[in-house]
Each structure stands twice: as C-alpha cells, then as structure tokens.
Amino acid sequence: MFVSPGNDVALAFITLFSLGFYGWPEKAEPGGETQTMNNKNEKGESQGRRTSTEFDWGSFAIRLVATLVLVLLTYNPSGWSYAHWLQNSFSNDGLGPAHFVVGVIVLIGWVILLTATQRSMGTFGLILEALLFGGIVWMLIDFGILSINSVTAFTWVILVILSVMLAIGLSWSHVWRRLTGQFEVDDD
User: Fold this and answer.
1) What is the pLDDT of residues 103-127, one digit of tens each?
2) How many C-beta atoms surround the C-beta of residue 20 within 10 A?
3) Are 33 and 124 spatial neighbours (Cβ–Cβ below 8 Å)?
4) Residue ranges of domains in the chain
C-alpha cells in the first residue's frame, strides 16, 4: 500500500492545478444572485472582484505552485517523489494499482503542461526561454551566487527553473493578450 507524502501531494496538485485552469468556483449570494469572477452580478452591477479573464501575479503564482508540485512530485533529490516510489517498489513489494493511478495522474499533468506551453509559446519561444534561463544560471554561477559543486543543489535549481518555464508557458497567452491586445486562438 502506498503510504507516503505522495497521496497528499497528488491531492494538492489536482486541487491547485484545477484552480489554475478554472479559477475559484462560483458562489451563490443570499439574495439568489450568483457572484462569479467576472466582477459583476447577474444584474450587471460591479462587485469589486477581479474578473476571470484578468491575469495578475496571483494567477501566475497559482500556476507556478501547480507546476512546482508536478515537477517535484515527479522527481526531486530528496527521495520523496513518484520516481523514487517506483524505484523502491521494484525492489520491495512490487507495483500495484496505486502506482498505476498516480502514474496516470502525473502523466496527465505533464501532457496538459507541455501541450499548453508548446501551444502558447511555440518551439522558438521555448528555445528562447531555455536560453534566457540558461544564461541567468550561467551568470549566477559566474558571479559566485550559485555553486555547481553540489549536484543535489544544482538539481533543485534546474527543477525550479523547469517549473518557472512551465508556469510562464501556462501564462503566456494571458501575458501576450495584455501586451498586444490580441487573443490567441487555436484552430486545432
């Protein structure tokens, strides 16, 4: 039986990931009006809340936390990850249905993240993003802020950078719309 922080991490990932894509749920007010994230009630009166199409640092933070959870749930150097759990199961009690279900959840998360990132940024955008973050890491190493002597510490840095890159990819359509006023529409 799977008894480790993975169960809690998987549940947190699903919750945060769904909030990142769908926003906070609607809530019914006592007068029968439904307040949504669109900043107006059914009568068109402003409620002082942000809109679901409005993108801000909080929206980015939710996406960043969701990507961090997925990346670190998949693998991290601490030994508490899906990859370590699988590796330990091969040598101990074998694989079971919990391994399969959690593996499918992790795979779904990766497919969603990679597809959304690829569609919003494109291959050239991903290459530029990787070059930018590679250059930042190189600069931090050159200035002596980051050390590559510890493989574990450097692995953590790479995993966090991967999470940031994926969060930017999830957010890029919103940023692009803000910068240019153009919506991205996928014809597929």
Assistant:
1) 999 999 999 999 999 998 899 999 9
2) 20
3) no
4) 6-180
